User: What shape does this take?
Amino acid sequence: MKKKYCAEQVPIFRHLDEESLKKIDAVLTHRNFDKGENIFSPINQIGMFVIEKGKVKEYQLTNSGKEQLLRVLQSGDVVGQNTLFSDEIQETYVNALEKTSICLIKKDDFKKIMMENPTIAINLLKEFSNKLVETEKQSLSNSYEDVNTRIASYLLNIYHSSNQEEFDLDLSSKELANYLATTPETISRKLKEFEDLSYIEKNNKKIKILDVEKLNEYIDN
Assistant: This one.
């Protein structure tokens, strides 16, 4: 049976043969973080890491010190690619939303691997492009879609990525409102409306999707 390597979860490494994956795994550092613990910040840019298990939020701080949520990431997602090629300080923070394990690769170790596998650089550029597209899509969504559509899309994204009809909302109302460019009061009101329509069932932070088709109608219209 083929051994499963942590590096295989990183899209830029998936094309490599087992021997190359073994070399990469040899320089990876495995680290664990508790819920609420800081993983990455402008003063602690640890390198690129893949989330082995758990869930994190990536955000920036505005001039007024308010959190601007960028992404919620989970197992298999990659963070900190920019640190491998640039000495410029990345103004992003990553915090664990639950108990989280990561596989970390540091800049110097990555440079050695790049010398042996130049094609990794090309794949990394593709990842940067995908990340940019994802950010632009969220920005456009917040600009042009109504709040019902944004909330429905968010719930369905979690539903499809977790492959479970019931899941926890890891973000607070304030964080979710910030991410979807609305207010906490609107989030609470719209979730209550979805519940009254029997599209979802809500119990504190736990959400159960009852009618995928009806939620999809907000996205398709």
About this structure: The radius of gyration is 19 Å. Residues 145-220 form a domain with the Arc Repressor Mutant, subunit A fold (CATH 1.10.10.10). The chain has a mean pLDDT of 81.
